[in-house]
Amino acid sequence: QVQLVESGGGLVQAGGSLRLSCAASGRTFSSYIMGWFRQAPGKEREFVACISRNGYMSRYADSVKGRFTVSRDNAKNTVYLQMNSLKPEDTAVYYCASSALLSTTAQGMGASAYEYWGQGTQVTVSS
């Protein structure tokens, strides 16, 4: 069992930045591929980014590429999402998720690939 707790959400003006954190319980954090997803009101949950177990590989949704950066610190059992140049359309609840079963980040864009999820943190970008 893995427990994931997101933090760092809030209200920011367009063009601003936020850094989300996701702290994981347990001693096997480095064995999980980690993903970030988001869900806006009335929309389906969508992939944002994912990162490999060692942090060397990552993938991004086209809508955030060049603005968001995912990273992880396995010593701290934490994954981060640095969000820059935020837009109103980035407004959503952001979730982190973990997968022990995925082989590579190339498979990490589907929500069904992840076994554990955090409770989410709200990000609101005002225009």
Condensed summary:
The chain is mainly β.
Write the layout of secondary structure elements.
Layout: E1 4-7, E2 10-13, E3 18-24, E4 33-39, E5 46-51, E6 58-60, E7 68-73, E8 78-83, E9 92-99, E10 116-117, E11 121-126
Parallel strand pairs: 2-11
Antiparallel strand pairs: 1-3, 3-8, 4-5, 4-9, 5-6, 7-8, 9-10, 9-11
Describe this structure in words.
- It is a single chain.
- This protein has 127 residues and is mainly β.
- It is 0% helix and 46% strand.
- It has no helices and 11 strands.
- The protein has strands at 4-7, 10-13, 18-24, 33-39, 46-51, 58-60, 68-73, 78-83, 92-99, 116-117, 121-126.
- Strands 2, 4, 5, 6, 9, 10 and 11 form a 7-stranded mixed beta sheet that branches. A 4-stranded antiparallel beta sheet has the order 1-3-8-7, with no helix packed on it.
- The chain is globular and about 40 Å long.
- It starts with a strand and ends with a strand.
- The mean pLDDT is 96.
The share of residues in extended strands comes to over 45%
Gyration radius (Cα, Å) is: 13 Å
Write down how many β-strands occur, each being a DSSP E stretch of 2 or more residues: 11
SSE pattern, N- to C-terminal:
EEEEEEEEEEE
Q: What global shape is seen?
A: globular
> What is the oligomer described by this structure?
single chain
Terminal CA distance: 40 Å
On the 0 to 100 scale, the average pLDDT is: 96
Biggest sheet character: 7 strands, mixed
Detail the poorly predicted runs.
none
Please give the share of residues in helix: under 10%
Structural class: mainly beta
- DSSP summary: helix tally: 0
